[in-house]
Design a protein that fits this description.
The chain is an alpha/beta fold. It is built from 9 helices and 11 strands. The two termini are about 40 Å apart.
């Protein structure tokens, strides 16, 4: 299991630490605020009171190339940039940085961040999509207008097979998996005779315009 180092323990950073630790990750949490460290210490492998912008802090942790470092400083572009530059010099391959806007994202990508996240933008997009596509639980954009959607099947689908529903021919929607919400069991590429049951989620691939018709 890879080690993950999270620098900055606001709401975003703290929740990442807790989620990763509860799922068995080796997580190091760093913040110069003692109260923040005190709140997170029971949810991390190691919690350190330190200023993550100081080079010595990263060097003392003995980062490995395949460690993942998540930088969560909100709008402090200078701090995020300094740490990113230092991590690149240390040959760290996976640097994920939180940014408040597209301008900061461009700068952080230029100095070496491997992934830049704008949480507010992503949450806004998810809320908007929940209104645009009622019944869609989650979605993942792909290329050429295609997306992967998680859909709660309507009652009219229950007890019917994928072949009976004619999703591909009628709506150009391809069912690539079915997930049981109670057991979390996933049936990959279900056959045409597969019957949709209550408590199951359909994972489909389709174009946005086709999902609009399908809904």
């Amino acid at each position: 299991m890879k080690r993950v180092v999270v620098i900055g323990l606001g709401i975003f950073g703290s929740n990442i630490v807790k989620d990763l630790y509860e799922n068995g990750f080796d997580v190091v949490a760093i913040d110069k605020n003692k109260d923040a460290i005190h709140r997170i210490k029971d949810y991390a492998t190691k919690a350190i009171v330190a200023d993550g912008t100081e080079n010595e802090v990263m060097e003392n942790i003995a980062l490995q190339e395949d460690d993942v470092v998540i930088i969560s400083f909100g709008e402090d572009l200078a701090a995020s940039t300094l740490i990113t530059l230092h991590l690149k010099k240390m040959k760290v391959k996976n640097i994920i940085v939180k940014a408040p806007n597209e301008e900061h994202k461009l700068i952080l990508e230029k100095v070496g961040a491997t992934e830049v996240i704008i949480p507010e933008k992503e949450v806004a997009s998810k809320v908007a999509r929940s209104l645009i596509f009622p019944g869609v639980l989650d979605c993942l954009p792909l290329s050429e207008g295609y997306m992967i959607f998680e859909i709660a099947p309507p009652n009219s689908f229950l007890g019917k097979s994928i072949a009976e529903l004619q999703l591909r021919s009628k709506y150009h929607v391809e069912v690539i998996a079915v997930r049981d919400v109670l057991t979390d069991h996933i049936q990959m590429v279900p056959p045409a005779h597969y019957v949709i049951k209550d408590g199951e989620i359909l994972v489909v691939i389709a174009k946005e315009k086709d999902i609009q018709k399908f809904k």
